[in-house]
Amino acid sequence: MASAATFSLVTQLLCLTLCLLSLGCSAFTTEDYSDALDKSILFFEGQRSGKLPSNQRLNWRGNSGMSDGSSYHVDLVGGYYDAGDNVKFGLPMAFTTTLLAWSVIEFGSSMPNQIENAKAAVRWSTDYLLKAATTTPGTLYVQVADPNMDHSCWERPEDMDTPRNVYKVSTQNPGSDVAAETAAALAAASIVFKDSDPSYSGKLLHTAMEVFDFADKYRGSYSDSLGSVVCPFYCSYSGYQDELLWGASWIHRASKNSSYLSYIKSNGHTLGADDDDYSFSWDDKRAGTKVLLSKSFLETNTEEFQIYKAHSDNYICSLIPGSSSFQAQYTPGGLLYKASESNLQYVTSTTLLLLTYAKYLSSNRVAVTCGSSAVTAETLIAQAKKQVDYILGDNPAKMSYMVGFGKKYPQHVHHRGSSVPSVHEHPGRISCNDGFQYFHSGSPNPNVLVGAIVGGPDNKDNFADDRNNYQQSEPATYINAPFVGALAFFSANTNPK
């Protein structure tokens, strides 16, 4: 007869095994993930430009940028500030929108209590992008404000008095990258609103097609057309080819129009289909495109799409420790590490791809092929979960990198509106230079930018909660956007269907 100690050990091992096999083994509960999901969407309200609605929940913010575009006789009021500044950059805003929409498309069913807020976050951007795309024929407005002037000030958006210059791409000065990303955003959003607002969805898709045609017909990088206005801030380092394939892929998914399928088949090889790429960001869409198009291969087994499944497998295998083609870098605490500046953007975007690909694999009962071994959807989910949990506080510093979540989170966020007293607490104007007293202050930000995910720790898991260290302490919309989908998945605590 087994001793009590032996029985206890067996019981513990059995419990541990069951725990590891389930998604319930976690530093966080489904309620924690739900709370983080709520906050991750709320963050976007802090980034809003334009006239705030009556149901604005982050109420330390006020109206801003109310005359954007007026000096150019166009209406460009609305949209999002990308990060801690007051510029409306078109490329990251469009990418943010695409990934927010993708989060809703794949995991919207897992966020029933937040789906309307998530849709509102998408729509705040698409309303603006529609104006940017349809105001002037043959033109796409891609930026509001001179970033060099904006970055020389530290002032809340409600007070800003720096030039609100408007920048555009056109048939003479092309920007295929920003235009094709805008097309992707509009197309993805059209899927989000297809059932709830068919008329709006149709307008989004129609505009996406028009903007994509413009991007494809007048090829060129917006970095070449707009130079120092977009570089080095959001320079298109990867070129525009990846966005063309990404845009066409989203329009195909939204429209089921065979002409876009033909476009992908005919142009894929010259637009990056043959490339193995191990990063997914506002600049480089190749890995995301492979995962998106792998769905078509898994569901139809069309030979032309086999390459996208193969490259998606390569991408996934590079992330999985122990895989024959593992090449990713992780911190000692287990965080995916890509860059010293705003590293968490790569973590959240990768996490969305892991979970989305796991969903596609699971739906079609297949696995990832890594050399001679197979990696299951469950392994991808477990890897994604490690990254999500790390961001939320399961890390060596026991620091949540989401503002307002958990007991310990960044207090000195590199964000103008958050760090300067709000217009409600300090109605008098705070000028460009006067704001720097708050930038240099050692006090915590007076306005909590709830839900903001900052740039994150370095490659040794070290984090400086310092407003001056923008590489680690600045939030951005494109960090949060893919995390919305990841949190929705784990808040439901079930395998994807």
How would you portray this structure in words?
Its EC number is 3.2.1.4. Helix content is about 50%, strand content about 5%. Helix 2 packs antiparallel against helix 18, helix 9 packs parallel to helix 11 and helix 13 packs across helix 18. The N terminus is likely disordered. It contains 18 helices and 5 strands. The strands form 2 sheets. It has a 3-stranded antiparallel beta sheet with strand order 1-2-3. The chain has a two-stranded antiparallel sheet with strand order 4-5. The chain is mainly alpha-helical and about 500 residues long. Strand 4 and strand 5 form a beta hairpin. The protein has a single domain, classed as Glycosyltransferase.
| Radius of gyration of CA atoms, rounded to a whole number | 22 Å
Text of the CATH class:
Mainly Alpha
**Termini gap:** 44 Å
* Helix share bin: 40-55%
Instruction: Please name the CATH topology.
Output: Glycosyltransferase
Q: What does the average pLDDT come to?
A: 93
| Total of DSSP H or I helical runs spanning 4+ residues | 18
Low-confidence stretches: 1-24
User: Can you tell me the overall shape?
Assistant: globular
| β-strand amount | under 5%
Class by helix and strand content? mainly alpha
Number of strands: 5
Helix and strand string, N-terminal first? HHEHHEHEHHHHHHHHEEHHHHH
Tell me the domain tally: 1
Major sheet size, sense and barrel closure: 3 strands, antiparallel
Spatial order of strands in the largest sheet: 1-2-3
Oligomer: single chain
CATH architecture identity: Alpha/alpha barrel
